[in-house]
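Feature request disguised as a bug report, sorry. It would help if multi-protein outputs had a clear separator. Right now it looks like this:
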Amino acid sequence: MNKKYVFLLIILGFASLSIKSQTISLQAFGPNFPNPTNMSNAGDDRLFIVDQEGYIRILKPNGTTPSYPFLDIESRVNNQEASWEAGLLGLTFHPNYSSNGYFYVFYVNLANTHTVVSRFTVSSGNPDVADPNSELIILNIPLYFGNTHFGGDLHFDDNGYLYISTGDDGTTEGDTGNFSQNLNSLKGKILRIDVDNPASGKNYGTPNSNPFKNDGDPNTLEEIWSIGLRNPAKFSFDSLNGDFWVADVGHTAWEEVNKDLGNNGNINYGWPCYEANTTFNNDTPVSCPSNSSLDFPINTYGHFEPDGIYRCAIIGGYRYRGSNQSNLVGKYFFADWCSNEIFILTESGGSWTREHYQPSIGIQRWTSFGEGNNKELYVIGNSGGSGQVYKIVQETLSTGADEFVKFNIIPNPSNNGLVSLDFPNTVLLKDINIYNLQGQKIASKLETNTSKSYNLDLGYLSSGIYIIETISNKGEKSLNKLIIK
């Protein structure tokens, strides 16, 4: 499909969203952490904060943290990767952690030659300290390029199986090693293993229901659960129904949210044949299957959507299943690493709409979401090497917030560029922006008037299709399409 028309379709979908800035608010919780990359809970009221440099620290329910780390494996971890993607990345606790003390981590080794999944054990005498000498290596996956796209998340499902996300070990040129579509590679995948029933010669086994375990093909790997991912740095399970959610970091244009309803596995998410919904590489050496065999995302966003905000890398999250924020139940939260935004997906009638929340706490590099034992949600921001945990809480919308709705452009099409933006109610605008179909802002007008109608002279624009964006003094946005003949 022509890229111009793809962009137009995305814009028109984007224009139908209700973008509000007061759906949620963030409450800072606990002290600062140097370089947090992930968060987990052990079935109690503590939160465990993963640090890129090779530490895990405990955040207690009163907001304090011990002066010593829960785990220190800094000497084993590559934390100097220029891309910021290496280091200690993932943590999850065994379902029977309270009795066996086992937890699992994902890290890039010091030599930057392997990604490692290991089991550690908590110390017998202190629940706030783990034994660094208890490491049992579960998986040791070689890196051929070793620069980016490590994946790195870990979670157990309700059956006690361990899921692991792996990146394609690629470069900025795509899936350089042709790993994601290759069933003889563990990269660019979701893996599912059984750590409680190890097979001969391994520290783990694989469930018989894994799609490639008993397929009769000696070239396929039995650990694989799903394929076709680029850099699935974060994934989660819906604690209500077991649905599998994975956010895959895109290449240069698109970010995507994927959902495996019921977590049935054996899904091909499409990379590198597709980046989100857009054809990426159908040429050799990649052998791309038919579209009917691929699973496309439920939500995507572009790096250059028509609002002047640059986005670059999705940070996957959770569907809220707590009990303290009634207005948030069932919503899926995720973020972008570059834009400072937190996104909220809401389902209605089988379709999903997206809200954008731009917090007023300064520039953050969102690195992870986390779920407490009570299913309350947290998000970690990192600003200049100083990370902060925030609790996500609902915010009551102010009176009249829903009155800022889509405006009409009259006349549309316009022969001379003289148009009026007409709202159903009186609004106070802060800005009016004009974008072309490439997402470039080509004009901006500062507004301080309160009116139901705003007149624009766009006679200097050439014939074509443009997007008009209005921003109220409350930060509420609305978009519409203008055609100039």
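(second protein starts here, but nothing in the output says so)
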Amino acid sequence: DGRESIYFETPCPPRWTPEFIASIQRALSARGLYDGPASGTLDAATRRAIRSYQIDNGLNSAILSTESARKLGLVEIDLS
């Protein structure tokens, strides 16, 4: 079918609160990729915006990677 599996780190499920999702929406809105409300709901528009952001960074996925979350300023960076 021409598809290949890719593996990448994602933020842990407990982090996916409505507040975290709203932060994703606000961060993507500030970059002109999301034009809906910061509803805190991981809906189709939010997933499209995540994919658009990540495609620009070499990852074609609607699932937010930890690296993308870091670049958006949404998760801490481990400096150890």
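Even a blank line would do. Unrelated, but nice: The mean pLDDT is 88.
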